[in-house]
Design brief:
Elements (H helix, E strand, L loop, with lengths): L2 E8 L12 E8 L3 E5 L6 H9 L6 E6 L2 E5 L4 E2 L7 E4 L11 H6 L16 H9 L15 H13 L5 E5 L7 H17 L4 E5 L2 H7 L2 E6 L2 E6 L1
Parallel strand pairs: 3-9, 3-10, 7-8, 8-9
Antiparallel strand pairs: 1-2, 1-4, 4-5, 5-6, 10-11
Bound molecules: adenosine-5'-triphosphate.
InterPro entries: AAA+_ATPase, ABC_SmlMolc_Importer, ABC_transporter-like_ATP-bd, P-loop_NTPase
GO molecular function: ATP binding
Organism: Roseateles flavus
Amino acid sequence: MSFEIRLRKQLPPAPGVAGSGFALELDLSTSARCLVIHGPSGAGKSLTLQAVAGLLKPDEGRICVAGEPLFDSATRLDRPSRERRLGYLFQDYALFPQLNVRQNVAFGLQRGWRNPPRSMMNEKLAHWLALMELDGVASQLPHQLSGGQRQRTALARALITEPRALLLDEPFAALDPELRERLREELERLLARVQIPLLMITHDPEDLARFGEARVQLRGGRVVAAQL
Ligand SMILES: Nc1ncnc2c1ncn2[C@@H]1O[C@H](COP(=O)(O)OP(=O)(O)OP(=O)(O)O)[C@@H](O)[C@H]1O
């Protein structure tokens, strides 16, 4: 099973807002390698991704990724986020602006918060820089990169840790249409080479068409349609 996500989470209402707050309720599992969760703004997509990543604790439920239980309220299992071994790619890639490409990618290998040295190199780093075609720009800073190079740097930083799965939060939302299309193709090529499960959240129908081997539509915190 690639993903098993069964959870219930009641969030408190925002300060000064009447009502009981947002309730998220999911019950799904799939053995498809790519799962896309889609739905309108405020549907609960980001909260779901946060729960899988260990950044939001469900009130109850069970979350397994690639067959590995990460959360199970019945047995009080709640693996800390850093131990879940998930490659989490944020919408804006969240690269460190003051670190060059090599350091950004190497950051995934670091323990603690010390920055990797500027000229750091080892076998793993060389492998990922080459695989993601970043050798030529390894000494450049994020603002000197193209959108595609930025995305590949973020992917390399996530993948160098050998995650059990990749979590992508609206990976193409902030890009112009031409670059968006190129990066979709790059991600498809990467997935063909790196055989790990992918969980993507998006509100873009094209992402759904391209990556939605299994798909779940959320609305108001509930599943309204699913193809698993
Ligand atoms: N920490 C929180 N505490 C309380 N309510 C929250 C919290 N985070 C999100 N919410 C509420 O939960 C709902 C779902 O939020 P979520 O960010 O998961 O939506 P989304 O589907 O990812 O939307 P978008 O596409 O706009 O990012 C929203 O109504 C939001 O107001």
